[in-house]
Structures are given as structure tokens and as C-alpha cells.
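Good morning C.,

I know you're traveling, so I'll keep this short. The sequence:
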Amino acid sequence: MSTGNPRATLAAACVVGPLMTLVVTGPSVAVPDIGADLHSSLAAAQWVVDGYMLTASSSLAAMGSLADRVGHRRMFTWGMAFFAFWMTVSGLSSSILLLDISRAISGFGSGAALASITAIVAQAFDGPARAKAFGLFGTFLGAGLAFGPMFGGVLVNLWGWRSVFLVLAGVAVLVLLSTPLLPRTEPNRGPRFDWAGSFAFGLGVALFVLALVEGPGRGWTDPIVLASAVGCLVLLLTFVVVERRSEHPMFDLGLFARPQFLAVCLVPLVLAFSFVALVIVLPPFLTSTSGLSAVRIGLVLLLLTGPSLVMPAITGVLAQKVSQRALFVVLLAFSAVGASWLTMVEPGASTAALAGPLLFLGIGYGISLGILDGAAVSAVEPERMGMAAGMFNTVRLTSDAVSMAGLGALVTALTKSALDNDAVSAFQGGADALTSRALQGGLTEAAETMPAGGVRDRAVAAMADAYAAGLHATMWIVAAACVVTAVVVGSLLKGGKPSADAAGEAPAEAVGEPSAASPQPTSAR
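The C-alpha cells, ready to paste straight into the viewer:
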């Protein structure tokens, strides 16, 4: 193996990490403009984000295994080039279909780059230096998460929504220039990869997300929606059978029988709905009900994402004396309070009114960033920590992809049920058309097509009230899920020890490995 330049390696990682976070959070504030410019349906606009998350999360394990076989630097180069090309296509797309397809395809490049760069960093550093390197990598990931919405908002305001994708593509090209400085490893064939399990799992999750995204628009009894749901069930059952029979399974399902590992996997599942999906759901809500610009929305969302920068460090100090169980219960309590508090925010609410609930939700998520990875790997024996890390991050990113589709579908369905159809009947296309435009952040523009006067005012007010009611009902469900999960996790982790002690059982790179949207597949260990 060539050693490469460690500083250049870390610099590349600290650019790639937030880049792959920005590619999710940045476009979230551009969705309203995309929908208006490309005249897309609600479901098609959702796929701008969901499609990328789906392919990125489902391809991680396979890309990590391929990186072992072809060499990590080579796979990283291919992944970044592939990502840059398809992000450029996204920025130049003239139709929503081409944009959705190119975004989804770019997710494969993202998966390849992330799976490779984490392995490259682990190879470039040893011992305490490795822990520090991953800690810095995680900090930059947090920065990408925190400032992503504002980054997207500024670009949309200056140059339009296309600039978000083109700038990200340009940064990826610059990263490619650093690849000669990265360490080169010889291919390692290793055990045969579980292609059958990976295919069944990835396609099963894809069909589940398809059903969630298309259900509100097509109807839950639509043949495509029903076929997707049935196909998902069949494929996931097939996945379980394949994993139990495989000599080298993608997942060791027996790990879920361990109370600590199961508890650690339940937490990001709930946080995906209380935090990750909100980064996608809130921008169109704030645009439609408060008339905020993309820049203003980016600044408001700093209240939600900002704690990700500071809470991991604070949690690291608390973890010296506080048990994992206590920290998990506290972070879920913060999330439950934040979600329930958000139900009190009415259309047109000020930034001050949003500050409290968004900060509580952000603090809950920020605490998790400081303990989840270490807790996941400390739940198993040292020789199985790589698999535990890969399983945990696959569960986490799959939860993110499903939550974005699921929360959006729930808000859509509840908004439609709360809408006074008579009040919006004057809108051309009817209630469904106006709902679709509102949920993409285009309520104001849609209302301008109606005759001025009382009819328009009543339609806008009715739509905004229904939208708020849909979001409020959804957040009550999320708050209840946080409370139930806190009880379950507290029960599973009875007799837990201080977090730092548990994390200390893991190797340095496991404790310091990235959090949030930073996959660490087994092969990258």
C-alpha cells in the first residue's frame, strides 16, 4: 500500500463528508422553485430528494465490497467522477423526470465515494491520530448538515435552483484533483459478497419508498402502489431467508436479538422522522404558509441543524459520567418535547415562535451524534464490530430515506383530510391541484391564478390552515413515537454503564467514526 499524503487525505475527506450531506439538505430548500419551474407533481418533486437518498443508502454495502476488490482509491475516483457527471446533468435538466433520474443515479456515486473515503482515512492514520481524524471528519459532517439549508437558500436566491447542483458538481471535480495524493491499496478479494441479500434488501426498500411517495397522489388502492407494497414485503421476507442461509451474510440478523444493539438501532429510526425528514418537510411549509424566501428558510433551519455542531462535544463530556441509557432517554425526551411544541406553531409564525421547538429537536439529534456510533460497535465483540458498524449505518441511512418519503406522505394525507374542499373549489384544477402546489411551497404563486378578492383570501387561508393541521397531526404522531421509543430503549438498556466506558471497548476508529449521514460499511473497516 502506498502511504499517500495524510493531510491531503484528511482534507479530501473533510470536503467529501459535508458535500454528501449538502447534496441532501441543500436541494431541500430548492424544491419549491424546482416544482414551479418544471411544473412537477407533488410526488415527482419529492423524488428529487427521495431518489438520491434511496440509491445512496441501499448501495453502501455493495459499494464498500466492490471498493475492497478494486482498490479504495480507484473506487473513490470512479465514485466522485460518476457523482460529478450526474449532478451536472441534474443542474442542466429540462424536465422533472430527467432531474429525478439523474439525482437517483448520482446516489450510486455518492455511495461509492463515501464507502471508499472512510476506508482510506482509516488506512492513512493509526491509533489516536485515527480517532482524531474521524472526529474532525464528523465535525465537518455536522457543519454540512447545519449549513446545508442556508447554502441551498443562498444559491437559489443568487442564481436559481440549478446552481445548487452545478456548484456541488464543481466541488466534486475539485476533489478529484486530490486523488493522486491519496493512499493506494491492493485489491483484497476477501469472502464472497452477499449479492442476493443486497439486491433483495435494496429493491425491497426502494419499492416501499415508491409506495409511500406515490400513495397520496395515486391513492393507496392504486395497482402500482399495491404492487409496490406487496413486492416490498416479498423481497424483505426473501432477504431474511437469504441472510439466514448465507455463509457470509450482509446482515447478521442475530445481532438484533441483543438488547443493546436493538436499542441503538431503534433510536435513529425515530430521529429520522423527528429531525432528518423535517429538513425536507419544513421548507415548503414555511414557503407556503409564511411566504419566506429560500435564504430566510435556510437561516430559520439553522435553529434545527445548528445544535449538531456543538452537542456532540458536550455529549462527549457528559458521557464520562452518564450512562448510555440516560443519554438516549434524554435525547428522545428533547425530541418528543420539540415535536409536540411544533404543533403549536401556526401559519405565518415568527422565527421566535419557531425557535423553541426547532432547538429542542436539534438538541435531541445533536446528542445522538455523540454516542450512537460508539454504542453500536460496543454492543458486540471486537471481531464483529465491523459488521455491527455496517449494519447500524445501513439501518440509519435506510431510516433517513424511508422517513423523508413517509413523513411527506403522512403530511400530505392529513392535509387533504383537513382541507375544506368547498373553500378552494374556485382554484383551477380543484382541491388536489392546489394541495399539490401548496405542499411544494407554491401556495402564493398558485393563488395568484385565482380572481382577487374574498374568494382568493378564503382559499389561501383554508389551504394554509389545512397544511398546518396536517403538519401538527404528523408531529403529534412523531412525539408519541419518541415517547414510546424512550420507554422501550430504557427497558432494553437497564443496568447500562457510562457511555465512555462502553465506547472504550471499541477500537479508536470505531469510537471516532462519523455520525449522521456518514455510512461506515463493513468493508470499509
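Safe travels,
E.
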